[in-house]
Amino acid sequence: xxxxxxxxxxxxxxxxxxxxxxxxxxxxxxxxxxxxxxxxxxxxxxxxxxxxxxxxxxxxxxxxxxxxxxxxxxxxxxxxxxxxxxxxxxxxxxxxxxxxxxxxxxxxxxxxxxxxxxxxxxxxxxxxxxxxxxxxxxxxxxxxxxxxxxxxxxxxxxxxxxxxxxxxxxxxxxxxxxxxxxxxxxxxxxxxx
Length: 193
Fold this sequence. Notes:
By secondary structure, this protein is of the alpha+beta class.
């Protein structure tokens, strides 16, 4: 059975950051701020080559998020059927997206944020966010498993994803201002499974 593999080149139009959970232990008698200064790069997603990546699950979640946000109806789908469920079950990023930036080259930006990570939290602490500067580039490889997600449908969703959802911490889809991107090019290949 043949499926389409979308191979898209994207460029960041805003900075991007990641702040994943990591359980790096504290050193004996290490203060919170010293631990933060020592470990903030551990919040990045990194591949075996030491490059920062956008995880495949983040790509999937962003595309599912934009399908829900747009709510575009499926032509001939009968009434209220839209692409959300199709994107949720029928797209598969086949690998993490390598940004080709070494983790040690990433600079940090200290921000005063809620201690519990939730907007409006009463106590605030300084956290260092790794910053990937605008202009970052990568390639997304996404398998389109259902023929109802045509190249035109996928392209529209991916372009809007770059405007309204984005990637990473403090991304636009979560009310932030980072992680936006533009689509430079998309090619489609036959993919046999």
